[in-house]
Amino acid sequence: MPSNPAPWWRSAVIYQVYVRSFADGNGDGVGDIAGIRSRLPYLKSLGIDAIWINPWYKSPMADHGYDVADYRAIDPLFGTLADAEALIEEAHRHGIRVIPDIVPNHTSDQHAWFQAALTAGPGSPERERYHFRDGRGPDGSEPPNNWRSVFGGPAWTRLPDGQWYLHLFAPEQPDLNWQHPEVRAEFEDILRFWFRRGVDGFRIDVAHGLVKDPELPDLPTRNAAEAADTPAPGDETDHPYWNRDEVHAIYQAWRRVADEFPGDRSFVAEAWADTPERLAAYVRPDALHTAFNFDFLMTSWDAADLRRVIDRSLDTLGSVGAPATWVLSNHDVVRHPSRFGRTVAKKWVANAPYRPEGPLDLELGVRRARAAALLMLSLPGGAYVYQGEELGLAEVEDLPEDVLQDPIWERSGHTDPGRDGCRVPIPWSGQSSPYGFSPEDATGRPWLPQPAHWKDLSVAAQTGDPASMLELYRRALHLRRDHPALGDGDLTWLDAPAGVLAHHREPGFACIVNLSAEPYELPAHEAVLLTSGGPLDNGCLGPDQAVWLAM
């Protein structure tokens, strides 16, 4: 055992728990803290190191908890503060760390601060905590600028008193003014509140979006014929609200707060950056610990593209001493078996919903997802597993319109179904819905309907089946924990033909992924540790398959 082992977060596998859809403890059809506690033994057996919990704070749920009314209280839909404290303690007994979400870019419009601002009126100190402005035009009836909401529509809403307020997301999510000292002090106190209760870190929502240009300038439009409805992205080195340099002083202060507490408390940033260099600025030694690697998540199933992203991520983050992180899916994007099962490639756009195109070959998507899991878990650094990906769940693309709840659906004028398809409650057991998600005596249906074929993908159905996705993840996660070559460190690329990724890690490990259309004859090796697709065919790795080798 090293005298000074590396911090846990440098190589952790963190399992994302979308609370509403993980496990329902009280039978109302919505996941909750009691449900999470009941499944801790499963998470321990899976082999993960920590859980990231999506917002559990008191909220009107206009955006399923990302509109926070009270950062120091648990929403009754999920439980109580005492329940959260019990979960943290119990998870620690299982050797699992707990990382809740923190939502600093905006509050709920029901937050005490925003309600006070509404009451106080224009020009009041209470309004200075948010972005209130007079409108443009002779009567102030036009928004203060042409910014658009990520969820669709204008980023401004007008009040009866004539002023407008900024919301980069839903109108129920007013943006905070991070130039205001009270905002900065309040969030540092919120961090301390939860660190004292034992959380091991935070995932920071919209980490790139806190600071706005105080002049609130228009974004440039693509051409003169296009009005302010379609602002162009502009140069993100000086974007008026994404990735402004001033945001880093906030996170340096947060790092100092985390360092007040023992146990390697850590932050992970949800930071969309236009270059790896700008992403690296978030994870310098005096700032945040890690950041999500959206470049990797957004890359298509192409060997050259993946290698380029892996190299760039390792080089850039390594230059500031930070580990890379790898992720294939989360609660905001189409699940990766459904992305990989399409031949029509589509360029991703940061801060915009991803919608797949073309017919779905789900068998192909699942085969590639299995190979992608072995690639991701073999790379240096940490990794994130979104609940249900270990079951091979695909996007639910046929949800009836009358059940859609994502605010994107309404804000887009019913043209974009939003993110509900990746948030359907996951299956645990049984032959029919709710598949063990809720107890047998449940009074409520799952908050989103589950597909009938999920009976074959439940935890119970896959447990013990060596060909299942669940057992592949279990074997991979346990091998990753036990093998000295895996986790944080370096890799060396091996010679391989176009369409094949092959890398070596010391001591004695190699991962090979065949993204080509032809079988690939494996190099000399001591043993096969794990394959994504079952036994090898005469020492050859088939298309869209991966293997871990002892070298």
Automatic annotation (TrEMBL):
One of its GO terms (molecular function) is hydrolase activity. Belongs to the glycosyl hydrolase 13 family. It comes from Streptomyces siderophoricus. SUPFAM superfamilies: (Trans)glycosidases. InterPro entries: GH (IPR017853), GH13_cat_dom (IPR006047), O16G_dom_2 (IPR045857). Residues 16-423 form the Glycosyl hydrolase family 13 catalytic domain. This is Glycoside hydrolase family 13 protein. It holds the Pfam family Alpha-amylase. PANTHER family: ALPHA-AMYLASE FAMILY MEMBER (PTHR10357), NEUTRAL AND BASIC AMINO ACID TRANSPORT PROTEIN RBAT (PTHR10357:SF179). Residues 215-239 are annotated as: Disordered. Keywords: Hydrolase.
